[in-house]
Design a protein that fits this description.
The protein has helices at residues 3-6, 21-29, 39-47, 57-70, 86-99, 126-139, 153-156, 158-171, 184-194, 215-221, 231-250, 263-270, 272-281; strands at residues 13-18, 35-37, 75-78, 103-107, 145-150, 175-178, 200-203, 225-228. By secondary structure, the chain is of the alpha/beta class.
């Protein structure tokens, strides 16, 4: 089933954030139907830096290719601003499609962008953003969805965000993402305005501008996708801080052993026995 056809079904899609082959494999094994490759998560992990536009298109495409090698699930891929003007956005569509993305999310911030839940963002015109969407649609060669995101709520206000979102639908967006609504009332108004026209995406960021809502609550409102882009990094970062502190203090992993895989446990999680069995089929010794 393609991502487009899945979005015709009534059940909301829950897309966990991933940033490499390991997290993609673990999320797939947990039973999700779709993954979200977060630009923020790549910046946090590969660079150890904040989500302020430092990750490059090539770094993201390389990461997508590794994830596609590890999981068969469709991946929604963060394309930031398209990394420049409409021609850059067009090229981003081509490179991300080749890497295996099922959907590209593009936003109307200026380049370089900032996390949607940081302050002091700035926007390009709605006309320029519409041109990027059209250029991406023209470039795609597969059934790759274009998710149009507007960050206008924090910059121009809620009504302007609604106006921009409508224009992006007209430009050819397949899915709509109005970033950082500030309360449940704004979430509901987004859904009431656009549900039935295109699928709607909501973003849940722990500690961000939008109140955390469950997938069921968002589905009842009229949303079709909910992403949790950076949750895995926040979970792993806190665990890693605690692990390194424990190792430094104890000089051993023993105090932390109940919160970590042992050697065999990790190998089971990443499929080592299956890979070794596969190798035996081709080693010429059978």
């Amino acid at each position: 089933m393609t991502l487009r056809s899945r979005l015709t079904q009534p059940e909301i899609l829950v897309a966990p954030g991933v940033y490499d082959g390991l997290t993609a494999a673990l999320a797939s094994a947990a039973g999700f139907e779709v993954l979200y490759l977060s630009g923020a998560a790549v910046a946090y992990t590969r660079l150890g830096r904040p989500d302020i536009g430092l990750s490059t298109a090539s770094e993201m495409a390389d990461t997508m290719a590794l994830i596609a090698d590890r999981s068969d699930l469709p991946v929604i891929m963060d394309a930031d601003t398209g990394f420049g003007n409409a021609l850059n956005a067009r090229r981003t569509m081509q490179s991300y499609e080749r890497a295996g993305a099922a959907a590209l999310q593009v936003e109307d911030q200026t380049y370089p962008k900032k996390c949607g839940h940081l302050s002091d963002k700035s926007l390009i015109s709605s006309g320029e953003m519409a041109g990027k969407i059209a250029a991406m649609a023209d470039a795609r060669r597969h059934d790759t969805l274009i998710i149009a995101r507007t960050d206008a709520i924090a910059v121009e206000g809620f009504d302007a965000a609604i106006d921009r979102a409508g224009r992006y639908i007209e430009a050819g967006a397949d899915v709509l993402f109005v970033e950082a609504p500030r309360d449940s009332g704004e979430l509901a108004k987004i859904a009431d305005t656009f549900k039935g026209r295109v699928p709607l995406l909501a973003n849940m960021v722990e500690g961000g501008a939008t109140p955390i809502s469950s997938a069921n609550t968002l589905q009842d409102m009229g949303f079709d996708i909910v992403i949790f882009p950076g949750g895995i990094v926040r979970a792993l970062a806190k665990t890693a801080q605690e692990y390194y502190t424990s190792l430094r203090d104890a000089g051993s992993n023993k105090p932390f052993s109940d919160r970590m895989h042992d050697f065999d446990g990790l190998n089971a999680a990443i499929g080592t026995p299956e890979m070794l069995d596969l190798g035996k089929r081709f080693d010429g010794k059978s």
